[in-house]
Amino acid sequence: MLKALLLENLHPQARSILESAGFDVTTRSGALDEAELVEALDGVHLLGIRSKTQVTAEVLAQAPSLVTIGAYCIGTNQIDLAEAAARGVAVFNAPFSNTRSVVEIAIADIISLTRRQTELDRAMHDGIWNKSATGAHEIRGRTLGIIGYGNIGTQLSVLAENLGMSVVFYDTAEKLALGNARRMDTLDELLETADIVTLHVDGRSGNAGLFGAKQFARMRPGSVFLNLSRGFVVDYASLRDAIVAGHVAGAAVDVFPVEPKRNGDPFESELRGLPNVILTPHTGGSTEEAQEAIGQFVSHKVRDYLASGSTTLSVNLPNLALDPQPGVHRLAYLHRNVPGVLAAVNATLAEHGVNIEGQLLATRGDIGYVVTDAGAPVDSAVIDALSARPESVRLRLLS
Questions:
Q1: Contacts 24+ apart (CB under 8 A), 257-261
Q2: Where is each ACT domain found (predicted)?
Q3: What is the pLDDT of residues 128-175, one digit of tens each?
């Protein structure tokens, strides 16, 4: 029986889908450190995580049974994707399932900060009645600057326009502007134009330190700042300085460079205690609807990969869309992408009298993926011969 380990309070749908597919599933509530994870992965074929568990090269080296990882979130920078591919471990994530949840909290943060809700709320809880319109604004007619115009940025763009905002965006890749949104040629141009600046960039290493003192100084006086993307993108000490100085009127932050591994663990940040700052514990995509959708999407992907070899939407392996074929014996062969592999596979199959009924090949960087369907059982000698080839990464027989 295939074994699955699910960490970080995944939605119950994740477990039920895998159990219905015949997996022996173990769940744990929090993240694990490297040593704990290595121990827990003994004999495990499928690992399910969110953003806090770090799957390093060392972890992968000590988990020979691991076949696939499900990242039940958008980001995959917590996983060494190249090492996983080199060891034949397929990684899947949920790039779309919580987009709406992140967009909605961004809208909520923008309205709350623009109306000074955080300051008014704190004063009321302290027993202070301060009915005043000073510093409170409608978002209608204001300009939203979106940095990172991907799945979240584009949906936020559409909703913001529907609320009467003007939208400008900046992205290093070519992106089609939706509605009346305008592309800015430079980041500085966006910062000098926008009343609200919101970050929606991915976790690539090149985005580290993207936003610091220089960028906050470029923002318009009295503007608002949001980061619901990655914690390491922003210098939060510089953000605090800009807020205390009054240059930035308010901020909402959902992600941090260092985050507690488990609920209840202490949280430290230079932004704590500021009355016009909204701090949330990396819950931008954490609605019940989003977590259920993510649980279903990723569990179906990892289940299908183990059952049929399908790698559709894998973030680190060549993508092949495959369906189960009853009565067919399938060889799923991951290998280093070097010349002559397909010829060698077919020569080996011919030598052992294996008749090919269907075959697909895809490559991605250093990794190639050959999937071969045979109409009769494949002898163990074929498995041994292909596995022994110098370019072999991982061979699975799916019947």
A1: 257/231, 257/232, 258/231, 259/51, 259/52, 259/231, 261/30, 261/31, 261/32, 261/33, 261/52
A2: 330-399
A3: 999 999 999 999 999 999 999 999 999 999 999 999 999 999 999 999
Asked if residue 91 has pLDDT above 90, the reply is yes
d(CA 384, CA 388): 6
Dig out the tokens for 271 from the structure.
């932004």
Catalytic residues: 230, 259, 282
What percentage of the chain has pLDDT greater than the value 70? 100
Q: pLDDT tens, 258-312?
A: 998 888 899 999 999 998 999 999 999 989 999 999 999 999 999 999 999 999 9
- CB 327 within 8 Å of CB 46: no
What is the Cα–Cα distance from 385 to 381, expressed in whole angstroms?
6
Give, as one character, the DSSP assignment of residue 141. Answer: T
H or E stretch covering 218: helix 213-218
| Residues 48, 5 contacting (CB under 8 angstroms) | yes
Whole-number Å distance between alpha carbons of 302 and 308:
10
**What angle, 0 to 180 degrees and rounded to 10, lies between the N-to-C axes of helices 117-125 and 99-114?**
70
Beta carbons of 233 and 200 less than 8 angstroms apart: no
Residues 310 and 323: their CA atoms lie apart, in Å, by 7
Look up residue 321 and give its two tokens. 């869309």
pLDDT tens-place string over residues 58-76? 999 999 999 999 999 988 9
What is the arrangement of strands in the sheet containing 367-374, beginning at the earlier edge strand? 356-364, 367-374, 329-336, 392-398
Q: Do the beta carbons of residue 355 and residue 374 sit within 8 Å?
A: yes
